[in-house]
TrEMBL record:
Lineage: superkingdom: Bacteria
Pfam family, one: PRC
The protein's name in its UniProt record: PRC-barrel domain-containing protein
Domain PRC-barrel: 1-77
Leader sequence segment: none
């Protein structure tokens, strides 16, 4: 069994480019099933100056690749191409 506090200690890394996205600040739950539907990550560094709000990234549960001992690997910002099958 894993607790939310366990998730908050892990670094979140994008497998697309290998960059650390930030730390988990919140989760979204499916109210019907109670399952986690997304992770909310607060990026480090202020975008709007000293008193500005930090930018959040929402990672849908389906984009989580692996949850390891000290890291969560996710897919974020991938450009997907749709093949034209004419």
């Amino acid at each position: 069994m894993m607790r939310i506090s366990d998730f908050q200690l892990k670094d979140i890394v994008n497998v697309t480019d290998g960059k650390k996205l930030g730390r988990l600040t919140d989760i979204e739950l499916n109210s019907g099933t109670g399952a986690i539907s997304a992770l909310i990550i607060e990026q480090s560094g202020k975008k709007f100056g000293l008193f500005g709000k930090e930018e959040e990234i929402v990672i849908p549960w389906i984009n989580i690749v692996k949850i390891g001992g000290d890291v969560i690997l996710v897919r974020h910002g991938e450009k997907t191409t749709v093949k034209d099958e004419r």
